[in-house]
Here is the input.
Amino acid sequence: MTGPDTGGDLQTAPPRTRTGWQTLVVRQLRLEADGVVSVTLARPDGAALDSWAPGAHLDIELHDGLVRQYSLCGETGREAEWTVAVRAVQTSRGGSSFVHESLRVGHRVRVSAPRQKFPLERSPRYLFVAGGIGITPLLPMIEELAGTGATWTVHYAGRSRSAMAYLDRLARAATGAGHTVVLHPRDSGPRLDLDAVVDDAGDDEATLVYVCGPAGMIRAARQLVPAARLRTESFDPAPDPEPVPVTTSLLVDISEKPGAADRPFEVQLGVEGAVLTVPAGVPALDVLNEAGADLPWSCREGTCGTCETGVLDGAVDHRDHVLTDAERAAHDCFFPCVSRACGTRLILDL
Ligand code: FES
Here is the structure.
């Protein structure tokens, strides 16, 4: 996931104490392509950071509560640094503009532990499709496949060749037989024809298709590739509304659930903690943060996963676009920016 950058306005939050977050220092800022800057983060003492796997992302608090998600795109094995890349967004409401205009080497930022929502699954063959900055989670995947015997083709679309980051690393990765990189710069050729690309890949069930790009690209891929073979991640802040699938979790306690966004419910802060009322029409996130819970947030639309909060008891009325059916059915976490309770109370792991 790379930089949803229009979700949420700047907000002020007290110092964060969330588990797994730490303060890192900006060690390097580098122009990777026109409008794309990479940010390399390290511990102030230079000690090793947690390892991560391709597809993982970081939540980064850029400025007084402004949290954005960026895919880790450095070379794996560099234990003392994490690198993400941020594109310049003209309509930025904070994240992109802050990185490009204000962030400097030596600045300190709060950063979550790496989170994995887009893992690389093992397969003998892959088709990777990247749109713009969507190359960032895919690049470490492609590099990870070196020496595994897997074959792959990458189709990478961008505004222009000079605006397409990491072409050098892609070229280095594509040294073996069965490794192909096809570039689609819009200013010097036809647009990426996803239909033709998917057709060329054939309907081989052993070819996994990984797509990362804007919502339109993801939507097109979903129409062309069977779900069993398709893995996607969008960097747009607000995916087009999609029908929420009927899941077992939505059937829990349905008799208790009036089926409206507007029913009040209670949240309890831990097993013996305070009980707060979430009024009709008010996000639980706001109630919790007004009470000092200090939950980070970014999209406020249930798409980024930043506000994920553990649930100890109670059935959740999930309204996010993050969890799988199985994760929903577990009722052990929710996204309080959008989700609510099926019953009268949720006991939270806070
Ligand atoms: S703030 Fe993005 S899912 Fe809640």
